[in-house]
Design a protein that fits this description.
The protein starts with a helix and ends with a helix. With about 80 residues, the protein is an all-alpha fold. It has one domain. About 55% of the residues lie in helices and about 0% in strands.
Length: about 80
């Protein structure tokens, strides 16, 4: 019977999990939580609106500059 489950000499089965798997499980549980879904639904009205305004009204649709300091200069 044990020989069907594992081929190891000490008859133990090893399960490998990613080091962050616990955090991924928590995030997956939160993703299906009703309250979190309501909050995420408001994202398009708040955060995404800010990015859209920055692109359309403040000239941030594209840039030829690279790097945080140069982009900060363009934004100011």
């Amino acid at each position: 019977m044990i020989s069907q489950c594992t081929e190891s000499k000490n008859h133990q089965k090893m399960i490998q999990r990613h080091i962050w798997q616990g955090y991924l499980d928590v995030a997956e549980d939160l993703r299906h939580n009703h309250e979190i879904k309501e909050i995420y639904g408001k994202r398009k009205e708040t955060i995404e609106r800010v990015f859209a305004d920055a692109k359309e009204k403040h000239g941030m649709r594209w840039t030829t500059l690279r790097g945080l300091k140069k982009m900060s200069m363009q934004a100011i």
